[in-house]
Amino acid sequence: MRQDRPIEIVPENVALVPFTGTFAAAFQDDPALRCIEPDAAKRRTMLPGFFKVMAEQARRHGEILASPDGGAASLWHAPGKARDGFFAPAYDNLRMLAGFRLVLPRGLTVAEEMYKRHPSP
Q1: In 1-121, where does DSSP find H-type helix?
Q2: Residue 44: what pLDDT?
Q3: pTM attached to this predicted model
Q4: Which of 1, 16, 5 is nearest to 68 (CA)?
Q5: Which residues contact 31 (CB under 8 A, 6 or more apart)?
Q6: What are phi and psi of 19, to 5 degrees?
Q7: In this predicted structure, what is the pLDDT of residue 63?
Q8: Sheet with strand 8-9: strands edge to edge
Q9: Distance CA 114, CA 116 (A)
Q10: CA 77 to mean position of chain CA atoms
Q11: 95 with 49: CB under 8 angstroms?
Q12: pLDDT-flagged residues of the chain (< 70)
C-alpha cells in the first residue's frame, strides 16, 4: 500500500452516502449498466440507490474499504455463502425494484449472465 493513499475499513457508524456517490460515478459508464439502462440521466438517478443496497450488503457480510476522503472505495464480502434470513433480502429486492423499475428484468438477465462467469460466492 502506498503511504500517501491510505485505505481503511469504513466503520459501521459512518454514513454510506459519500461511498454510494463514489460507486455511482465510477460505474456510470459501465458497459453492463449501460446495457441495463441506456439512458445516462436515468442511470445517474438509479445508481446511488443501487450502490446503497450493495454497500449495506457488504456491511452485513464483509466490509467496505475506502480512502479517508471517500474518493476511492471497494466492497468486500467474506468467502462462503451469506445467510440473511427472509427480511433483509426481501427489503433489498423491493429497493432494487424501486430503483430499476421497468429495466429490472433486463438487469436480472445481465446479472444472471455475469454470475455464470464468476466463481461461486
Answers
A1: 17-27, 31-36, 40-61, 87-100, 104-116
A2: 95
A3: 0.82
A4: 5
A5: none
A6: -75, -35
A7: 93
A8: 8-9, 62-66, 73-77
A9: 5
A10: 11
A11: yes
A12: 1-3, 81, 119-121
